[in-house]
Amino acid sequence: VKDDAEEKKFNNNTKDLLDIMAFYSRVSGSVGVITLQNPPVNALSAAVRQGIVDTMHRALSEPEVKSVVICGQNGKFCGGADIREFRANMRGPPLVPMIHLIEAAEKPVVAAIEGVALGGGLELALGCHYRIAHSKARLGLPEVTLGLLPGAGGTQRLPRLIGVPAALELITTGRHATAAEALQLGIVDEVTDHSAVDAAVKFAQSVAGKSLDARRISTYPCPRSPDLAEIFEKAMQEVRRSARGAIAPVTCVQAVHASVTLPYAKGMERERELFSTLFTSGQAHALQYYFFAQRAVSRWSTPSGARWDTSKPRPVHKAAVIGLGTMGRGITVSLAQAGLSVVAVETQEKQLLEAKQAVSGMLERSAKRRGAPLAHDKIKYSCSIQAVADVDLVIEAVFEDMALKKTIFQQLSGICKPGTFLCTNTSGLDIDELASQTQSPELVVGMHFFAPAHVMKLLEVVYGPRSSPEALATAMEMGKKMGKVSVAVGNCRGFVGNRMLKPYLEQAFFLLEEGATPEQVDQVLEEFGFAMGVFKVSDLSGLDVGWKVRKADGLVVPGSTGKSARIRGGSRYSPLGDLLCEQGRFGQKTGRGWYQYDKPGGRVAKPDPWLHGFLEEYRARHGLVARRIDHQEMLERCLYALINEGFQILQDGIAAGPEDIDVIYVLGYGWPRHRGGPMFYAGLVGLDKVLERLEHYHQVYPNVSGLKPCSLIRKLAASSSPPIHRWREFIQKPRSQL
Ligand code: CAA
Ligand code: NAI
User: Fold this and answer.
1) How many CB atoms lie within 10 A of CB 606?
2) Residue 533 and residue 522: Cα distance in Å, rounded?
3) How confident is the model at residue 9, as a pLDDT?
4) What is the ipTM of this complex?
5) Quick one: which atom of ligand 1 is closest to the CA of 138?
6) Could you say which ligand is closest to the alpha carbon of residue 347?
7) Which residues are 485's β-sheet partners?
8) CA–CA separation, 713 vs 700, rounded Å?
9) pLDDT of residue 90
10) Does 732 score more than 90 pLDDT?
11) From the candidates 143, 346, 506, 645, which is the catalytic residue?
């Protein structure tokens, strides 16, 4: 029976001390219930930790209380340490002694896990003597994704509880396990479909007074097996291979190793030592910045003042995709898996048949691999564009050809019911020009997916000058429904991602002209952490794609010789990509590109002696003398040209803030997450340093406009390089766009 007046007094006293806390109540006379209260995820802020310590002491001191339940408010146990506090001075009781207080208690403590038990949240639960989870709960130690390791005993308790191999896997990947898996692994003792708190209270009553000797995980010996050394060696190899330079996964393996080689107390010391190294690292800073950046992009705004919180999306139940090639197929799958009815249109009979088969295969594979819904019955195929008359939203994904897309938009404008949103998956064409083909240009936006569209998380949502806030909000919401991270960007050539790619690629070409090989440039970029170097990516996506665009822009002048061959509009130009295409070298699809492959469609890139000879002959023809270019120059020229364009994009109001650019580059272009994104990286290097190097390279190559520092980076550097969250204050508001 609760003693309400007393509880209120106790809780109010605690509240006086600190704002948020853990709420204490007594249930059925003998169970002390501690409820974490820190919406939205009950993160373990200083105040919550203080609350837990206070309420634990109270539960332990009350003679009527025989057992304790710890749970979280609003159906969420705990999302872990409060990440926002990491960059501030440490306040409140530390996590490790707080968890020891719970584990050492002489009354049984049961964790009632609903929603999530992540990071410090799971470590708190591991300090309890029993764990009961709701069947929908997710549990994990995702610290590695924040550049950390589970520093509140997770690396020492989890292997003791579930064994080294399973603990290593969970800790180094940071993945969330389902309640069923947690039960199977032995992380939780019971799973319920009903209230985990009610079940935990009942359970707590049943174990009151029983010995806790066998329930304190820190006292367990770490399970040993003869192949432990091999297990650690393999784990280390695996994280080194996949980490692309990230230090946290490697450090996680070292910390778990300590659980095997050291007694618990010493292992905890080692964990603390390793945690401190990670905590102050630039990588942890970058990953934590990125965690918030990925969430911040959903709070979009445009230069004209349209905003996420004042613009309402319209519901979309039925959508259409026009053009079922590489992209259209993936988009169809994504829409159907999100539960929408889809009309998939492809005018050529043969293509339509192929597309049907491909889409079915994709649905089946993602059902098998990720448990995605099969959703075959959500899709209706058609050869006629007339079939889209009653849909709420269309996504056009035909060839990247302005004339063709214009015709399609004219047709759609006539066929679709009034109010249908008309979207294009163009990689960079003018949204406004397409909008002008329709009767309702306010309904037109870009939805730029990335290949493969049903897998890649990024969606650039492009608003033109006439797109309505409602159209933008609807496309953003659709992206979310499809499980994408949607970033709103303004309308310009290439939008954000592809626009920044241009000067980056350009520098890579120039480096080849000056003496580098594709292998050298790629190696430098891969060592930096890119999943693939620029030339390997180019081979993968097809050299002909950029060639077509350059041809349409009048940049490709076949057979041009002398100085003019390498100059366009007064700026330096490298025709190397065009020359390869003229030879039919389109990359992987033709088995030859910047590298050679064993067959057309082959995946393994091998250096190609033909290409090296071709480069030598090209340099000789143009009077270029090859020189040895060091790693630093290759990296700086590629990255700083890309970053400079990023600043120009901010200045032009095409991206609302640096977070938008960083999320686009990490999710869409293989930028290493542990480096935060290009704009964050620029801040980490130092804006004055980036500026100084750009100035230097621009002096050496005055006819390369991409190296001319943009005025925003100058302005920021002149203002003592403010931290990234203050950059927006330095961006002049461009003219209204919406
Ligand atoms: N600290 C601070 N804020 C957090 C947080 C945390 N641990 N977890 C979530 N939030 C915030 C988010 O930033 C977001 O804030 P805004 O609304 O202002 O953007 C809000 O809570 C809701 O989060 P989501 O939008 O992500 O909500 P969701 O329902 O989609 O996901 C979640 C919930 C699965 C818990 C997800 O937020 C998540 O993965 N959180 C991080 C969990 C984590 O990594 N915990 C480990 C922390 S490190 C640690 O614990 C160290 C240690 O051992 C000592
Ligand atoms: P693709 O060549 O694989 O497919 C285009 C499809 O459109 C073909 O199946 C073609 O038959 C069909 N088509 C042509 N005219 C049509 C019409 N009038 N009605 C119906 N279908 C028609 O092209 P891909 O790669 O899928 O690209 C499509 C669009 O997506 C382009 O605008 C491209 O720039 C863009 N994009 C491509 C990416 C990629 O990596 N391939 C990435 C992001 C965007």
Assistant:
1) 11
2) 4
3) 56
4) 0.96
5) 34
6) 2
7) 458
8) 19
9) 82
10) no
11) 143
